[in-house]
UniProtKB/TrEMBL annotation, chain A:
<dbReference type="InterPro" id="IPR037006">
    <property type="entry name" value="CheA-like_homodim_sf"/>
</dbReference>
<feature type="compositionally biased region" description="Low complexity">
    <location>
        <begin position="157"/>
        <end position="172"/>
    </location>
</feature>
<dbReference type="InterPro" id="IPR003594">
    <property type="entry name" value="HATPase_dom"/>
</dbReference>
<keyword id="KW-0808">Transferase</keyword>
<dbReference type="InterPro" id="IPR002545">
    <property type="entry name" value="CheW-lke_dom"/>
</dbReference>
<feature type="region of interest" description="Disordered">
    <location>
        <begin position="340"/>
        <end position="370"/>
    </location>
</feature>
<dbReference type="InterPro" id="IPR004358">
    <property type="entry name" value="Sig_transdc_His_kin-like_C"/>
</dbReference>
<dbReference type="InterPro" id="IPR036061">
    <property type="entry name" value="CheW-like_dom_sf"/>
</dbReference>
<dbReference type="InterPro" id="IPR005467">
    <property type="entry name" value="His_kinase_dom"/>
</dbReference>
From TrEMBL, chain B:
<dbReference type="Pfam" id="PF01584">
    <property type="entry name" value="CheW"/>
</dbReference>
<dbReference type="InterPro" id="IPR036061">
    <property type="entry name" value="CheW-like_dom_sf"/>
</dbReference>
<feature type="domain" description="CheW-like">
    <location>
        <begin position="19"/>
        <end position="158"/>
    </location>
</feature>
<dbReference type="InterPro" id="IPR002545">
    <property type="entry name" value="CheW-lke_dom"/>
</dbReference>
<protein>
    <submittedName>
        <fullName>Chemotaxis protein CheW</fullName>
    </submittedName>
</protein>
<dbReference type="InterPro" id="IPR039315">
    <property type="entry name" value="CheW"/>
</dbReference>
């Protein structure tokens, strides 16, 4: 990958974050927030996307982002009250930006979304007087026309080959290297700006000296100038002194500079606010009668007076100039403020001071300091770190095991150290995990809009309630969550919720509610989508499944089993195929996605009252607390979080159902028993004497019968899929202190495996029963 | 890479033209070979953790420096019964596409250069090992069966628990 590609990649990564931020802020506005910071942050996000896109030449993205930004700007400037913000449009636009970013990333042609751009352009227009709009455009056009005319007629100083353009060639570009303040160029044609500055300064003067990459940053100078026009009446003068001859002109460079003279005094903050989204602080300066400005004739203030105190004695300025002159050779390459300010003092002593850049410069870092510092790190590196932590955990349990072999005296001493090590390792691990963890919010917050849009498409009334958005899960899992969640919500909206009329007729509130929640349970993240709709129509589903040959005609599946049919491939229960779901992409795909992540999905339906899909996913790379058990000579790890209780089995507590299934009476409950040895090894069922009562994701209880409990320890989850594949009954493997591998039990599959184990018997006995 | 190795280590008679470097090993007096490039390392036998619902030739998994490595019993795979593994047995750790696997064999015998001209397609009579043997290499004193590693590790997972019992019966 070459350097540019790397840059692009990091731009796209950044885009993801920016888009998430954008969406969150727009979401907040949509929910009624009037916090200006929401507007500003949204604006900053789209502005950064635009800037980056400009740098890489993603023209469609720049265009769109630009329109979006301009429209958001109306909110910032208060031209459109925040309360009246078209947040629906903005949310759709943020989608469109995501699409454009994706298109750019995949190098695909993008939909330019001219429709949305048109809508965006209408924002704020309504509030402007048409006359004003008309008046502006010609004014700006005139400036550019004039500029073109100047370039064409050769009256531009740069167009003359020799003396004037020479310094521009020799001197590396310097943001502070203002040709007007530089003593060397002595333009033959007095630049318009100079005459503007020569006029008695009545109003605030803004000098815009953009960096040459302005266009490449995706910034249109006209936008800049318009943003200033919004502040008050002004005169704009284009300064073309820096435009080189046509032969030397790179059309990608911005050589234009502007002087903007306001008719009255304008607060510096207003100008800075309008410009700092487009320009760096050193690219523009504010002068003229405005608070804190130096009187005409004072030496320009450099970084020496960052607070804006302009009282620099002329003598000091002069000596600075002398020093500067003597060090001119080095000056050319220096990029700091003093370097540029000093020759300015020497060359243009009478110029109005222009220290606006300085306070601005002082202000910017202060603003940034509010953000928490962050760096971008490859996931790979964190993975390696995590693996290493895993190794340490294994080594540590190995040490603990060795310590047990020592004499009591030596062992105790060592045990203290190991205890400390254990604590520290755990802490280390938590921190490394935390680095990778992200709240599910990043995915959840995309869903309210989905629901809104679907509600509109389907003509239903629905509300999405989120809970547990701050539940953290590994970044890799987050990325994989979006698709299944979208499908599940579509499914609930399309098949689950009834129309308002139908709901009212059934005595339900017209508005349906979908509850999306996340929580940590049993070392996994459990995400559920629950609706209060009609639930699964089992008769219809079963009939459908029979007609498709998914269920044998004579089979009598239980209600639960019928509900599970919803995950069968190629099934759609909607009466007609809709745009929303039922185009062959159904819950079977969701199940496949979830299982590919090492997760599981289940459904619980209550006809007439609603339906709940629950998916449980591993927190990848997790380390879990496990109980080490032995059965049939093999060791297994049972995640502590799923264990409810352990008890010793006496013969009279286990009973046999007619089906052959062993059950256990436990606290007024009947719990099926899974004989671990028989399920997980080839051994025949034996009389294991220890029972671990465990709870599955669905809340079912299962009694896992084992020979012995060996202990409890933290284990590192190691994938079996990497080199082998899925192992029924095990969610993963781990390495124990002796270096050998043990399987981590997948408690959720135990009830099924226990039943399967008895299956032949069940079939034999149910023939008579039915 | 291969050529460089040829120059430094082996008899010039093998010839450098398109010869393949093969690791040979024995199972039940028979000689098998795999491309040296696929071999990651060779390690002594270590106790495996059996996996449920797996074919009989899946011996289980071992810990290879923190990675879970499945071990396949070549003897069982070619239908000669489960290896009674001892400390003398060897696990050849190989790369198969993007996976790593261990192949349990009796002994590793040699590394040989086989000229392209000595490599023949598998004759039809080689029926038992259904697709396991990719080619035969005719050496001076013996015939080496070159294994298709992907075929060896295929179908290790028995999807349904009941079919496992059916197979065992």
């Amino acid at each position: 990958m070459d350097f540019l590609d790397e840059l692009k990649q990091s731009f796209f990564q950044e885009c993801e974050e920016l888009l998430a931020a954008l969406e969150a802020r727009l979401q907040a506005l949509d929910e009624g927030s009037t916090d200006p910071e929401d507007v500003n942050a949204a604006f900053r996000a789209i502005h950064s996307v635009k800037g980056g896109a400009g740098a890489f030449g993603f023209a469609d993205l720049v265009n769109f982002a630009h329109a979006f930004e301009a429209s958001l700007d109306h909110l910032r400037t208060g031209r459109v009250p925040v309360q009246e913000a078209p947040t629906g449009l903005f949310l759709r636009c943020s989608d469109a930006v995501a699409d454009l970013v994706a298109a750019a990333r995949n190098g695909e042609p993008a939909n330019k979304r001219a429709d949305l751009i048109a809508e965006l352009e209408r924002v704020g227009q309504v509030l402007e007087t048409p006359a004003k709009t008309e008046q502006k455009a010609p004014e700006l056009t005139a400036i550019f026309d004039k500029l073109i005319a100047q370039v064409a007629s050769g009256t531009v100083p740069g167009a003359a080959p020799e003396p004037v353009s020479a310094p521009a060639e020799e001197t590396p570009w310097n943001p502070d290297d203002d040709p007007f303040e530089n003593p060397r160029p002595a333009p033959a044609v007095a630049p318009p700006a100079a005459s503007a500055a020569a006029r008695p300064a009545q109003g605030t003067v803004v000098r815009i000296r953009p960096h040459r990459d302005l266009f490449r940053r995706g910034i249109d100078p006209r936008v800049l100038l318009r943003s200033l026009e919004a502040i008050g009446p002004l005169t704009i003068t284009a300064d073309v002194a820096a435009v080189p001859s046509l032969q030397e002109l790179d059309v990608g460079d911005c050589c234009l500079q502007f002087d903007v003279a306001f008719e009255g005094a304008v607060p510096r903050e207003a100008i800075a606010n309008a410009l700092d989204m487009f320009l760096d602080a050193q690219e523009f300066s504010v002068g003229g009668p405005e608070g804190g400005m130096a009187p005409s004739g004072a030496a320009p203030v450099g970084a020496a007076a960052p607070g804006g105190a302009p009282e620099v004695p002329a003598s000091l300025a002069a000596s600075l100039a002398a020093i500067a002159a003597s060090a001119e050779a080095s000056m050319a390459t220096r990029n700091d403020a003093e370097g540029a300010a000093a020759p300015a003092a020497a060359g243009m002593p009478a110029r109005a001071a222009n220290d606006a850049g300085q306070p601005q410069r002082g202000g910017a870092p202060a603003g940034r300091a509010k953000q928490v510092g962050s760096i971008r790190v490859d996931l790979d590196r964190i993975d390696r770190l995590m693996n290493l932590v895993g190794e340490i955990v294994i080594t540590q349990s190995m040490l603990a095991e060795r310590a047990r072999m020592l004499t009591i005296d030596e062992g105790t001493k060592l045990a203290d150290g190991i205890l400390t090590l254990t604590r520290q390792t755990r802490e280390l691990q938590d921190h490394v995990m935390a680095v990778r963890a992200q709240p599910v919010k990043t995915v959840f917050q995309r869903m309210p809009r989905l629901v809104r849009e679907l509600a509109q498409t389907l003509g239903k009334e629905a509300r999405l309630v989120l809970s547990g958005e701050n539940t953290e899960v590994d970044k890799t899992v987050i990325e994989e969550l979006a698709d299944p969640l979208t499908h599940m919500i579509r499914n609930s909206m399309d098949h689950g919720l009834e129309t308002a009329a139908e709901r009212t007729a059934n005595g339900k509130p017209a508005e349906g509610v979908i509850h999306l929640s996340a929580e940590h349970r049993a070392g996994r993240i459990v995400i559920s989508v629950a609706d209060d709709g009609r639930g699964i129509n089992r008769e219809k589903l079963l009939a459908k499944a029979r007609s498709k040959g998914l269920v044998a005609p004579d089979a009598r599946p239980s209600p639960q089993e019928i509900d599970e049919i919803i995950f069968a491939p190629g099934l759609s229960t909607a009466d007609k195929v809709t745009d929303v779901s039922g185009r062959g992409v159904g819950m079977d795909v969701v199940r496949r996605n979830v299982e590919a992540l090492g997760g599981r999905i289940t459904v619980d339906s209550d006809p007439g009252r609603g339906c709940r899909f629950t998916m449980s996913l591993p927190l990848t790379l997790a380390v879990l607390d496990g109980m080490i058990v032995r059965s049939a000579g093999e060791r297994f790890v049972v995640p502590i979080t799923s264990i409810v209780e352990t008890l010793r089995l006496s013969d009279d507590t286990v009973e046999h159902l007619p089906s052959g299934q062993e059950v256990l009476r436990w606290r007024n409950d009947v719990v099926p028993v899974a004989r671990l040895g028989a399920i997980m090894t080839d051994s025949p069922p034996s009389d294991e004497t220890v029972i671990i009562i465990a709870e599955t994701d669905r809340g079912d209880r299962i009694g896992i019968a084992v020979d012995d409990i060996l202990g409890q320890q933290q284990v590192v989850v190691k994938s079996l899929e990497t080199n082998y594949g899925r192992v029924t009954g095990a969610s993963a493997a781990t390495i124990l202190g002796d270096g050998l591998v043990a399987l981590i039990l997948d408690v959720d599959t135990m009830p099924r495996l226990a039943a399967q184990q008895r299956r032949p018997l069940v079939e034999a006995m149910t023939v008579n029963k039915r | 890479m291969t050529q460089a190795l040829n120059m430094t280590e082996t008899s010039p008679s093998a010839g450098s033209d398109a010869s393949r470097r093969i690791v040979t090993f024995c199972v039940d007096e028979r000689t098998f070979g795999i491309d040296v490039q696929t071999v990651r390392e060779i390690k002594g036998w270590q106790e495996t953790t059996p996996l449920p619902h797996a074919a009989p030739y899946v011996r289980g998994v071992v810990n290879l420096r923190g990675v879970i490595l499945p071990v396949y019993d070549l003897r069982a795979r070619i239908g000669l019964g489960t290896t009674q593994a001892t400390a003398a047995h060897v696990i050849v750790v190989v790369d198969i596409a993007d996976r790593t696997a261990g192949i349990l064999v009796d002994t590793v015998s040699d590394i040989v250069d086989v000229p392209a001209s000595a490599i023949r397609p598998t004759p039809d009579v080689e029926r038992d090992h259904s697709g396991l043997i990719e080619h035969l290499a005719l050496l001076d004193n013996e015939i080496v069966a070159l294994l298709d590693l992907a075929a060896i590790t295929q179908d290790g997972i028995v999807e349904d628990a009941s079919s496992r019992h059916a197979n065992a019966a």
